[in-house]
């Protein structure tokens, strides 16, 4: 029996791996926090004691990890263990990293005698639980062909994007739209709220019109309830924003909308909301509004103060 390995059982990885287990995939899993493995054990997957054990038992190993450092660590990259782990195996990179990193990793895996496929996905926790992610594949034709059926229990559609790193570039393009879309939706609710409008009515108007989408229907109820339970975390959005901005700069592209979003999500994370859902960008918008109100109030005070008055508190701020 050929095992499939799965490493990284976070907000996205755990439901993705569960869908594989429920589909009958012979699965061996590992996660840095062992408790995250228990639902997989209950679903019939085998739990490894280490990342090295996963590579020792599986022919294909799926990585759904948070960042490049985590990927390098489980692969043993830069150590003699790297070649032993990847030789004769296919590494499937499903997380979101810079395209340049992915290209370098592909080269290293190839040089060590392994196969490599990029397979980032579009979607958050709920689509992951439902097996309705959208997959994007890049890599050598034979490797992509072999990996595609493995992703079927996790994805409602899968697209071939060409050579590495084009799947990650496609993912960043999709995420650029998502980030600006959700930020705009959040600002629309903030605008309506501060004008005294019925926000439930705004939701109904949006749902009835051409701008309604699966994203708006998922995020609007969260904004109505101020429910910041994570689906796509603000800190992860900030990371994606940075990756997109870096890719744009390397190509000489302007990214004005993205730059505004980058600042807002940076403020959101700085205010302690990084572990909350991306609609927590509302906190940054509210804080900016309070700053504008404060500046407007100060300006009006200075305007109304009689000229020549002693101890003018406005004089030091001109």
Concise structural overview:
This is NAD binding domain of 6-phosphogluconate dehydrogenase. This protein has 318 residues and is α/β, with parallel strands linked by helices.
Describe this structure in words.
- The chain has 318 residues and is of the alpha/beta class.
- It has two domains: 3-162, NAD(P)-binding Rossmann-like Domain (Rossmann fold, 3-Layer(aba) Sandwich), CATH 3.40.50; 169-296, Orthogonal Bundle (N-(1-d-carboxylethyl)-l-norvaline Dehydrogenase, domain 2), CATH 1.10.1040.10.
- It is built from 14 helices and nine strands.
- It has helices at residues 13-22, 38-42, 51-57, 68-75, 81-86, 99-111, 125-130, 141-151, 166-194, 199-208, 214-225, 234-251, 256-273, 281-304, and strands at residues 3-7, 27-30, 46-47, 58-63, 90-93, 115-118, 121-122, 133-139, 155-160.
- Strands 1, 2, 3, 4, 5, 6, 7, 8 and 9 form a nine-stranded mixed β-sheet that branches.
- Helix 12 (234-251) runs antiparallel to helix 13 (256-273).
- The radius of gyration is 24 Å and the shape is elongated.
- Please work out how many helical segments DSSP would assign: 14
Would you tell me the structural class of the helices and strands? alpha/beta
What low-confidence regions span 5 or more consecutive residues with pLDDT below 50? none
Number of strands: 9
Quaternary structure of the protein: single chain
- The proportion of strand residues reads 5-15%
* Helical proportion, percent range: 55-70%
Mean pLDDT: 94
Termini gap: 76 Å
Q: In sequence order, what are the helices and strands, one letter per element?
A: EHEHEHEHHEHEEHEHEHHHHHH
CATH class of the largest domain: Alpha Beta
Provide the CATH topology of the largest domain.
Rossmann fold
Sheet bearing the most strands, described? 9 strands, mixed
Described by the principal axes of the CA atoms, the overall outline is: elongated
Radius of gyration: 24 Å
CATH H-level homologous superfamily name of the largest domain: NAD(P)-binding Rossmann-like Domain
CATH architecture of the largest domain: 3-Layer(aba) Sandwich
Number of domains: 2
């Amino acid at each position: 029996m050929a095992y499939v390995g799965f490493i990284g059982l976070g907000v996205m990885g755990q439901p993705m791996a569960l869908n594989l287990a429920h589909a009958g995939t012979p699965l061996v899993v590992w996660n840095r926090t062992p408790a995250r493995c228990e639902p997989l054990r209950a679903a019939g997957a085998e739990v490894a004691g280490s990342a090295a054990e996963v590579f020792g038992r599986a022919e294909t190993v799926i990585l759904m990890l948070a960042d490049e450092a985590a990927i390098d660590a489980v692969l043993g990259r830069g150590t003699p263990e790297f070649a032993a782990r990847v030789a004769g195996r296919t590494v499937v990179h499903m997380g979101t990293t810079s395209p340049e990193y992915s290209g370098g990793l592909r080269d290293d895996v190839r040089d060590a005698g392994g196969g490599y496929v990029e397979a980032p996905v579009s979607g958050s926790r709920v689509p992951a639980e439902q097996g309705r992610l959208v997959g994007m594949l890049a890599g050598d034709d034979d490797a992509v062909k072999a990996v595609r059926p493995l992703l079927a229990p996790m994805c409602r559609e899968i697209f071939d994007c060409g050579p590495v790193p084009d799947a990650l570039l496609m993912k960043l393009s999709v995420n650029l739209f998502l980030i600006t879309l959700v930020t705009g939706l959040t600002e629309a609710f903030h605008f309506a709220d501060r004008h005294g409008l019925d926000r439930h009515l705004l939701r109904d108007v949006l749902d009835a019109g051409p701008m309604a989408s699966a994203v708006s229907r998922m995020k609007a109820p969260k904004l109505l309830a101020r429910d910041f339970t994570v689906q796509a975390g603000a800190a992860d959005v900030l990371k994606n924003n940075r990756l997109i901005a870096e890719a744009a700069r390397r190509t000489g592209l302007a990214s004005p909308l993205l730059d505004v979003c980058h600042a807002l999500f940076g403020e959101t994370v700085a205010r302690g909301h990084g572990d909350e859902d991306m609609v927590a960008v509302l906190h940054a918008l509210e804080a900016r509004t309070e700053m504008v109100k404060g500046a407007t109030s100060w300006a009006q005070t200075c305007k109304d103060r009689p000229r020549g008055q002693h101890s003018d508190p406005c004089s030091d701020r001109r």
